[in-house]
Fold each of these.
Amino acid sequence: RIEADEARHADLGWQILRWATQSGGTDARDAVRSLRDVDPAPACITEAGDDGAAYGRLSAAQINAVTERNQTVSQRRLDGLLSDRGQGCISRA
């Protein structure tokens, strides 16, 4: 349930970015485009405490893998948003 809730929140954020680029003019589009140059400085977790696995807590390796995957997907979505084809639906691929 939490995962679905968070996915809806993330999708709302992407919808707002799409709306801003379509409705906000050049300044808004340039501001969104500047996000492409932000280095998210990936957080490399080295210790997450393996004692929480029985309660669903991710290991450091799992956290790092999820973070990297999310960064890749987000960059792809931002690229799609900023391309000419980004005027329509934003894919989560």
Amino acid sequence: MVALDARGAPSFSLLQRRMHVQAPTAQVRRSVPVTYYPFDVLTVDGESTMPLPYLERRAVLEDLGLIGDRIVVPPLARHRWRRDARWPANTISRA
């Protein structure tokens, strides 16, 4: 969940105004709108996707067609991922 400021930048201070509010009023939703940015999917229809590599899970997420005013699947920085990678290409391995 992200609250954006007037410039469109994430604002933790704005988000704090929505934290712990279980049933926000229309006024609160208008004054501090939040957007959900899912970047991974761990289960679909009760089936775990966790054994899949991240890029495959990401494809499943994109295929779900999550579209709305307050839900945005962010673009994937594909240049950071190797084709067969389970982790970003720039991740340091301690093996």
